[in-house]
Amino acid sequence: MTNALPPRAGRRCHNALNPLHSSLYFSPDLDREFSALGFTDQSAMRLAARSAPLGAVGAGTVAATFYNYNHELLSLHLPAVWETASPAEVLAARLRTADTTLRRLLGEDVVASPEMTEAAELALRASEACTRHARPLYSANADLPVPEEPHLAYWHAATLLREHRGDGHLAALLSAGLDPVEALASHTATGKGMAPRWALGSRGWRRVDWEAAVQRLRDRGLIGADGELTEAGTTLRADLEEHTDRLDSAPYEHLGAAGVERLTELGRGFLFTAAAAGAFPADLVGKA
């Protein structure tokens, strides 16, 4: 029996795990935890939560590692956020947020289930094959201890796998010649990315920046006059994901086909439960 992975199996697994990690950034529990630390701005809270594994970094480091955020927005909050709370305090608050959020979205029975323990073990096993070189966000998170409780270990492993793929995706974006706003706009044009309102609001760009990026994509023949991706644009976005798949293949090959299939099944179950509990804004994804 072959253990070769089916095409895009790693991507499907990522798509099952990543949103549950990301639910943290839409959680009211994050607002409560970070407000208790002294934060008053939601952008500052979310920037601190994701960048804390890197240490008390400034706007330049985060612009480089997050890729599609406006440096002007980052400069408003970084490194000033570390005067409000240290990276260690932020990391502790982030983990408390993950605990509260997962218990609220999934319920105590799921959190304490054998399936959660199994998923955590599978995801951690996959992460054993992640690589550190040229992957700053993954590598920083990999330096953090694995939480003992299975649901937090699962969230931690999902974070490792998310940032590992994300770091590789940035290399693919650079190779494709897409700048930060072009990357956002072309992804939104697929119908699978954040709606422009969310992309602009969370990343700190203005509507004029978005429109200029769309025009550059039109000039390259990637977006048509109707705002839809052209055949060349569709091919470019597909090639981007294939390139990212190749750079992110190691953890899933390490886990093996049966393990990837099972982890995807478990992850989808958790994700559907979380989504039904209101984990994500209804208008988060879309072209308009």
Structure description:
- The protein has helices at residues 9-22, 28-37, 42-51, 59-66, 71-77, 81-84, 87-106, 108-111, 114-127, 136-142, 150-176, 180-189, 196-203, 207-219, 231-247, 250-255, 257-276.
- The chain is globular, with a radius of gyration of 19 Å.
- The protein is built from 17 helices and no strands.
- The N and C termini lie far apart (46 Å).
- The mean pLDDT is 97.
- The protein is an all-alpha fold and 288 residues long.
**How big a fraction of the residues is strand?**
under 5%
Report the biggest beta sheet as strand number plus sense, adding barrel if it closes: none
Sequence of secondary-structure elements:
HHHHHHHHHHHHHHHHH
Helix residue percentage: 55-70%
Distance between the termini: 46 Å
Low-confidence stretches: none
User: What is the count of helical runs?
Assistant: 17
Number of strands: 0
Q: Which class of secondary structure composition applies to the elements? A: mainly alpha
Mean pLDDT level? 97
Gross geometry = globular
Tell me the Rg in angstroms.
Answer: 19 Å
Record the SSE blueprint.
Elements: H1 9-22, H2 28-37, H3 42-51, H4 59-66, H5 71-77, H6 81-84, H7 87-106, H8 108-111, H9 114-127, H10 136-142, H11 150-176, H12 180-189, H13 196-203, H14 207-219, H15 231-247, H16 250-255, H17 257-276
Task: Please describe the structure with a list of short key phrases separated by commas or semicolons.
single chain, 288 residues, mainly alpha, 69% helix, globular
